[in-house]
Amino acid sequence: xxxxxxxxxxxxxxxxxxxxxxxxxxxxxxxxxxxxxxxxxxxxxxxxxxxxxxxxxxxxxxxxxxxxxxxxxxxxxxxxxxxxxxxxxxxxxxxxxxxxxxxxxxxxxxxxxxxxxxxxxxxxxxxxxxxxxxxxxxxxxxxxxxxxxxxxxxxxxxxxxxxxxxxxxxxxxxxxxxxxxxxxxxxxxxxxxxxxxxxxxxxxxxxxxxxxxxxxxxxxxxxxxxxxxxxxxxxxxxxxxxxxxxxxxxxxxxxxxxxxxxxxxxxxxxxxxxxxxxxxxxxxxxxxxxxxxxxxxxxxxxxxxxxxxxxxxxxxxxxxxxxxxxxxxxxxxxxx
Amino acid sequence: xxxxxxxxxxxxxxxxxxxxxxxxxxxxxxxxxxxxxxxxxxxxxxxxxxxxxxxxxxxxxxxxxxxxxxxxxxxxxxxxxxxxxxxxxxxxxxxxxxxxxxxxxxxxxxxxxxxxxxxxxxxxxxxxxxxxxxxxxxxxxxxxxxxxxxxxxxxxxxxxxxxxxxxxxxxxxxxxxxxxxxxxxxxxxxxxxxxxxxxxxxxxxxxxxxxxxxxxxxxxxxxxxxxxxxxxxxxxxxxxxxxxxxxxxxxxxxxxxxxxxxxxxxxxx
Lengths: 336, 269
Ligand SMILES: Nc1ncnc2c1ncn2[C@@H]1O[C@H](COP(=O)(O)OP(=O)(O)OP(=O)(O)O)[C@@H](O)[C@H]1O
Ligand SMILES: [Mg+2]
Description:
heterodimer; A: alpha/beta; Rossmann fold; Alpha-Beta Plaits; six-stranded mixed beta sheet; four-stranded antiparallel beta sheet; 34% helix; elongated; B: mainly alpha; binds adenosine-5'-triphosphate; binds magnesium ion
């Protein structure tokens, strides 16, 4: 099957004018995208990860046909975003900033119906779909379905926004920071929903600067900074690229045979293993290994410890987080 | 795919919801023509008598004429407010990108989403004026109002395309610039609503022939004075409205493709 989204060397400059004095205005060019390429397949959650102003929203807008790129080519569902914008729009569900974008004096249900009609739904099918979505996104549970949008909390707004993107059950979703401002349980609910959508063969493109979230739900991520994609791949692979060492800490019971003998025995398995006592008197075994080898090493060490009749309290594997990856690649600290 | 009927239906639905949720708005909508006409009368009386006005403008029943023609002119110009207002308001509350995500042509979305609002204005105005018309002229008055309403709606059609171009220009400039504030009074000035066209300078008289509201006012004048000898003139006025409708909207459609590209290249959405 062809990719759901294909972006090839897309560039975008914004030209703005900055006021200099009363009448004088100076042109300023913002290079928002400097040649971005990536693909998103059906059945995956793809994360576009980057700091503020990196070009995430710009990318989404181009793919949603709201913005025309300066150069490069982008296709969505096989349609060119510049040549066939109506076909593209017909196959996508989009959320831009989740905190606005509805009519204040209409209820959530009325808003959804309106946007459904704008997308060609009508009659019984529309009503059923709206009911389903109000239920799925928990707006019924929150008692928000028939309240005016102006009374909505941020979380309710975000849910309604996602409901709108799902109205036509589109094969491709483009969600700009879908969990912004949600409380942890709500964010988790939405994340689970996104993963489930991907399992149902939809292509889900999300932007976020929440590393934790990207790590949880994305099959692949692209890290974008200052209009360039600086790294792309499965989360695990990105981590490996940045940090090839993994530190393992195992907290164990005090060995009857004594620390020295335990250390000697363990060194027959891993040469560089360290054994020590921490400030609270806990005994630990510590070693580092190449990323990817940790599973086998841990198994070996645990087996030896078992032979020595040492009990294991806790195993702590210190992997780099996506945040480490992000910081090491962009030189900037992420928000989350 | 989605076509203009879906857009129109959606907007009618939301307009109905909106009025249902905002009853006060509905009430004030019916009252405003009286407020406006009252003001115009007030100024008129202060400056001279009704008879004098009748003589100047050349109509038999100045009261009804003034009522009808100002309502008509305002109403047919109102489509410009509807369309530009629609675009600005939706950009302001952040709904514009979602409207334009509808899988239809952008100008189709803009025009047909604005239409219910543009149409409710003259329809409500007509309903509001009918009591006054019946008071002055009985049943004939009501009938005239109805005909005038039809003329008004026809008069909106040529302004549709022009309004979309104006709305897009406002979007493109990315400033809530007050284009409407200068365009609308100008249109009203050259269309002969408040003064006969003959008193205008030569240049404005020529321009006035290309302004659809001129013919709407002309047609209204004929209908409200009920002169059979001028029935032919009525046909001419309607014909001109038709011609301008086709001409302006054709131009607008051609321009819109370019304008949409410009907006979407600039990042105005
Ligand atoms: N309409 C616009 N006009 C001018 N410049 C713009 C416009 N939209 C975005 N920019 C600029 O383009 C760059 C990329 O912006 P974009 O909104 O794509 O970033 P982002 O990755 O979505 O950031 P955030 O995480 O803050 O949402 C920024 O420097 C921004 O100031
Ligand atoms: Mg953004």
